[in-house]
Amino acid sequence: MTIQELLDIVIAKDASDLHMVVGSPPSIRVDGSLVFLRNEPLTNDEAIQLINSLLSSEQKDQFQVNRELDLSYQYADKGRFRINAYFQQDHPSAALRLIHSNIKTPEQLRLPQIVHIFAGLKQGFVMVTGPTGHGKSSTLAAIIEEINQTRSDHIVTIEDPIEFVYTPKKSIISQREMKYDTHGWDIALRSVLREDPDVVLVGEMRDYETIAAALTVAETGHLVFATLHTNSAAQTIDRIIDVFPEEQQQQVRQQLAGSLEAVISQRLIPAIPAGRVPATEILLATPAVRNLIREGKSHMIDNVIQTSGALGMMTLENSLAAWVRAGAITLEMAKTYALRPGEIERLVHG
Predict the structure, then answer these.
(1) Which terminus of the chain is less hemmed in, N or C, by CB atoms within 10 Å?
(2) pTM above 0.85, yes or no
(3) Per-residue confidence at 11, pLDDT binned at 50, 70, 90?
(4) Residue 64 burial (C-beta neighbours within 10 Å; 0-12, 13-18, 19+)
(5) Three-state DSSP state, 61
(6) Which of 162, 127, 131, 143 is nearest to 32 (CA)?
(7) Do residues 242 and 221 touch, judged by C-beta distance below 8 A?
């Protein structure tokens, strides 16, 4: 199979990912499950040919030297792919994520209505969290595109690699890709303050330097969106603070308490009969939440979320139970993804 044939299958099946791993058949992920595309495993020679057909000469050299490579690939006018090429057991392999060319709205993604509020913010820090492959980038793209359509702003994105490509509408958009447009996350975030931004999107907060720089940008009166690989809002707060040396953590609590606006933690849940729906935990930075962050009492944030539904906050279990009651997912599936499975029974059956 050629790379074009494989990419066509991904697009035709609306798969989220394509995996090419030597020793296993080429496979795609559809609605969260892997599906083999043939019976025969991929050989080393086939993998080399398939992966090299995606790379420029410079990228081939980088791949051989670094043994891994992140890049984006535009497949004609059919779709865009985010690619991680890597070696395993000395064999080249790759994971390709399909990025749809059309950016979906929050309604099309079936996200809570409160997401629209985040597109109207003028400053602060909004984080979208969750495991890899659970729709964080799509959620952020929906919010950024709403800003693009409704506000005359300068939006700067810093990504590795660029995923969704925006067409400027009311806003102007500067999309910067790691390695090609900048040499580092912290360097790009320090520079962004001299680029007259209104909105900054940080593709991923990976380390101390990136988190510190993103906090500074948010603190100086800009609207910052970022992703983090955490499972809940409380864990997100802890992760940000714990990455700093102990002697800086109290200062960081003050910074985060002052700049945080919201945390959206999400999962994509296999739906009935097919597809996936987003289950979301929503934390809003109310005065009570800000005080808990300042005082180092993030373990109490879950209680605030549970008792603040009227303000628009939502636990993951509330979201899962709502999908069960709507007939979109099964009770068993909801329990599988819940942080507190016992809570699902109570919420569904009352």
Answers:
(1) C
(2) yes
(3) very high
(4) exposed
(5) helix
(6) 131
(7) no
